[in-house]
Amino acid sequence: MTHETERLRELVATELGRARDRTTLLTETVDDGDLSRQHSPLMSPLVWDLAHVGNQEELWLVRDVGGREPVRRDIDELYDAFKHARRDRVQLPLLDPREARRYVATVRDKVLDVLDHAPLEGTRLVERAFAFGMIVQHEQQHDETMLATHQLRTGTPVLSAPPPPAPAGRVTGEVLVPAGAFTMGTSTEPWALDNERPAHQVVLPAFHIDRAPVTNGEYLAFIDAGGYDDPRWWTTAGWDHRQAAGLVAPQHWVRDDAGWLVRRFGRVGPINPDEPVVHVCWFEAAAYAAWAGKRLPTEAEWEKAARWDPATGRSRRYPWGDESPGPEHANLGQSHLRPAETGAYPLGASPLGVHQLIGDVWEWTSSDFHPYPGFAPFPYREYSEVFFGPDYKVLRGGSFGTDRSAVRGTFRNWDYPIRRQIFSGFRLARDA
Ligand SMILES: [Fe+2]
């Protein structure tokens, strides 16, 4: 066994352990009632997410990579995300919290044994531990989803975290991204998912993009200017949704006599005008952009602003370079339970001086979710391919609730334009 393979096994074990520690935190800070309850029709009961994480791990790592006997083939159907809509999962005969914990622990024991023995080369599924990396990201993605469920939960606060770092200085205005080609997507990132592949050249005209995401203070000006009551700023579908859903402010904002407050993980507090706005849907982001006389960036514009290095012409893994995210680069991984004020991560800026692209808030782009030229589904069609089309808008960059293993300069997230229970914000762009 080579030294490099040994290091890879250690990395996988560490990453699996970090994901499980987070899952444990999110599922042991609430009681069994809260674990089994439906906190929102948009979300699964937390206990479904827990066993689903274990079931996916069993399918891919125990059975497929390991070639081992199934642990619980009888529950596959219950935890198949394509078989049951989130709103219906509470009615299924799910494993109870005790059974779910025992199940995921049994699966994990077997997986650590598989990890000790599996070849990490030879097939694309195991090459550089891809399947393990996919499962690490899957668990972390469900952890972010569970964090959003925590935000929707009512009752005594159970999560806490220190505040994010204070800004080093104000970050305002925009940068000019010159016209020309850049490399979008990746063919080399070992744990990149199918929709991020392959690397390909994209030529863009020059554009301006904001150095920071839109803040609460800026968004409040849109509210105060009557932006929610003026159909001029909204797309037709957006205005219909604004009317039907009664949107008047970002989700979790609450109005009192003195003005707007925000409820975060069970605690109500003042709105910080210098933090990126979060919990807005694509329609709200697009309306704000129209009101501000700008637009959302396309997905390609976002990625060029984040990755393109004018000095070398190559695309970086992250805005700051190729090294994995550290706490000095970005607000990730639930280390802080809110976005940081703009300017808080000067070391995370891109070569062009664009800040906080990674972490803080997922950023809506104007783009629908489409395959890159040369796309091939892997390891299964349901990972990405079935979602391609005009129904979903792409979000980029991860949020304060995204783990560092589940975001990079090429990472693509997608959701319906009405969704805002996710940690979603945006930044603006305009033609040069
Ligand atoms: Fe899943």
TrEMBL record:
SUPFAM superfamilies: C-type lectin-like (SSF56436), DinB/YfiT-like putative metalloenzymes (SSF109854). The keyword Transmembrane does not apply. It comes from Paractinoplanes durhamensis. The keyword Secreted does not apply. Keywords: Iron, Metal-binding, Monooxygenase, Oxidoreductase. Residues 171-430 form the Sulfatase-modifying factor enzyme-like domain. Belongs to the EgtB family. Gamma-L-glutamyl-L-cysteine binds at R86, R87, D88, R89, D415, R419. It comes from the Bacteria. Residues 16-146 form the DinB-like domain. Its cofactor is Fe(2+). Coiled coil: none annotated. It catalyses: gamma-L-glutamyl-L-cysteine + hercynine + O2 = gamma-L-glutamyl-hercynylcysteine S-oxide + H2O. The gene is egtB. Pfam families: DinB_2, FGE-sulfatase. Its EC number is 1.14.99.50. Catalyzes the oxidative sulfurization of hercynine (N-alpha,N-alpha,N-alpha-trimethyl-L-histidine) into hercynyl-gamma-L-glutamyl-L-cysteine sulfoxide, a step in the biosynthesis pathway of ergothioneine. Fe cation binds at H52, H138, H142. This is Hercynine oxygenase. InterPro entries: CTDL_fold, DinB-like, DinB/YfiT-like, EgtB, EgtB_Actinobacteria, Sulfatase_Mod_Factor_Kinase, SUMF_dom, SUMF_sf. Pathway: Amino-acid biosynthesis; ergothioneine biosynthesis.
